[in-house]
Amino acid sequence: MYKKILVAVDGSETSKLALAEAVRLAKAFQSTVRAVYIVDSPAMLFDVGYYDPTELRKSFVQAGTALLADVGSALSKEGLTYETTLVETESVGEDVAGALQREAAQSGADVVVIGTHGRRGLAHAMLGSVAEKFIRQATTPVLLVRGPAKG
Questions:
Q1: What pTM, to 2 d.p., does this model score?
Q2: Residue 96 falls within a domain, yes or no?
Q3: Burial code of 108-146, b = ≥16 C-beta within 10 A, e = fewer?
Q4: How far apart are CA 140 and CA 65, in angstroms?
Q5: DSSP 107-144
Q6: Is the CB of residue 116 less than 8 Å from the CB of residue 148?
Q7: What are phi and psi of 142, to 5 degrees?
Q8: Which residues contact residue 94 at a Cβ distance below 8 angstroms, ignoring those fewer than 6 apart?
Q9: DSSP string spanning 51-66?
Q10: pLDDT tens-digit series, residues 22-59
């Protein structure tokens, strides 16, 4: 049914739950797992004094690369066929959800597995949700894996 499973990883506990679910699906359907880490371009902040956004971006890339190496090792231990990829947002207007949608379309994913943090109320209104933004624009089936509710 699902031959290409795309799973978004960011190192959070919720993303670990999403990865575990992607592994279960991949074993059931003998699928390929594509683990994706999205690097969001740091915004230019003009009222916080000097900082170098390229250094911030570089640290995001390093963290993502290390995480993807760990994810690849875990997928290999599970005996799965897998790919890992680091994706950067492409323009000022593209956010993490948009970059994930672009990657899902380009990779031909049959399903996207993504964690949701389970925020409610004011926390949800203030922080928003990458998962919610993603499902609003998704063109492929989406499996949301809910983490523990927070607030």
A1: 0.87
A2: yes
A3: ebbbbbbbbbbbeeeeeeeeebbbebbbeebebebbbbe
A4: 26
A5: HT-SEEEEEE--B-HHHHHHH--HHHHHHHH-SS-EEE
A6: no
A7: -125, 135
A8: 102
A9: --HHHHHHHHHHHHHH
A10: 999 999 999 999 999 999 876 555 555 566 777 888 89
**CATH code assigned at 98:** 3.40.50.620
Say how many residues make up the chain: 151
pLDDT tens digit sequence for 86-111: 999 987 778 999 999 999 999 999 99
- Residue 21 is classified by DSSP as H
SS3 content of the chain, % helix, strand, coil (to 5): 45, 25, 30
> Is 121 a domain residue?
yes
At 88, the amino acid letter reads E
Nearest one of 117, 12, 116, 114 to 63, comparing CA atoms? 12
74 belongs to a structural domain: yes
Give the tokens for residue 85.
Answer: 């990829």
Assess if residue 151 is contained within a domain.
no
Count of domains observed in the chain:
1
Instruction: Tell me how far apart the alpha carbons of residues 49 and 3 are, in angstroms, rounded to a whole number.
Output: 49
